Amino acid sequence: MTTSQPLWQERALMVGNLLIVADLHIGYEIELGNRGFSIPSQTSGMIEGIKGLLVETGADTLVINGDLKHNIPRGSWQEYREIPLAMDTWLKVVKDIHMVKGNHDGNIERYLPSEVTVHGSGGAVIGGVGFFHGHAIPDDHVMETRLNVFAHAHPAVALYDGLGRREKYPCWVRLKYSFRGVESTGILIPNYNHLLGGICINQESYLGPFHRSIDIREERVYLLDGTCLGERRDIIPDDG
Fold it and tell me: Would you tell me how many other CB atoms lie within 10 Å of the CB of residue 142?
């Protein structure tokens, strides 16, 4: 199986020579502004952060595993301005960019240069690895790969200190599962955009239909610094 490794303290995954990120939600600040929160665009930081990871790792392919943009059904001026800028920046340091559509990526093609390969919501197999966003059931040929990478759930865990104070931390989940008799490994990756909230997987169900379609045998949870919290079932509160 192709070697896979989260970049600890980052929200990105390396699989072979592929760098994978997801859930950038460029344009999210527009929604926050409509709610009364004035937050400057964070996109330049994400662009430079991903560029730095591409250079540091020597990856030759960038995979954006869904929800590059945020606003639906129509995009905003922010997305029209910043997504092309991101693509131009990354294409200077990487050979290929693959874009797997998420639920926020309607009409994403109009924002992207022709050099970017766009895949539908059923996912894609790239370098022998299956990729899908997670809001829809992936195609069978994607499900049947030995390693799948998916997102959408914005995974986090709720942890409590000795005084009962609750803190939420983004996390990774590595699953072992079977689908139609095929044994596979799945990696659920955290959202790259730090502004987005997370769904506490030790208090709530996963977001998306994928987990209902497989027989899960193992779910190991990791914090961004690499700390292994063990099996998901072991960190679910007794009352939850």
Answer: 21
Give the pair of three-digit tokens for residue 129: 């690895």
Residue 33 CB contacts under 8 Å (≥ 6 apart), including other chains? 39
Amino acid sitting at position 11 = R
With contact defined as beta carbons under 8 Å apart, do 133 and 164 qualify? no
Domain 4-235 in CATH 3.40.50.300? The answer is: no
* Identity of the highest mean pLDDT range in 69-73, 121-125, 165-169: 121-125
Contact assessment for residue 53 and residue 11, using Cβ atoms and an 8 Å cutoff: no
Strand pairing class (13-15; 18-21): antiparallel
Note whether 16 and 3 are within 8 A (CB): yes
CB 89 within 8 A of CB 49: no
For the CA atoms of the chain, what is the radius of gyration?
17
> What do you get for the CA distance between the two ends of the chain, in Å?
35
Write down the domain spans for the chain: 4-235
What CA–CA distance (Å, rounded) separates 45 from 83? 13
Tell me if the pTM is above 0.70.
Answer: yes
Q: How big, in percent rounded to 5, are the helix, strand and coil portions of the chain?
A: 20, 30, 45
Instruction: Quick: pLDDT tens for 200-231.
Output: 999 998 888 888 888 899 999 999 999 999 99
Evaluated on CA atoms 199, 74, 76, 112, the torsion sign reads: positive
Q: Give the length of the chain.
A: 240
* H helix runs in 92-230, sequence order: 140-143
3-state SS string for 197-233 = CCEECCCCCCCCCHHHHCEEEEEEEEECCCCEEEEHH
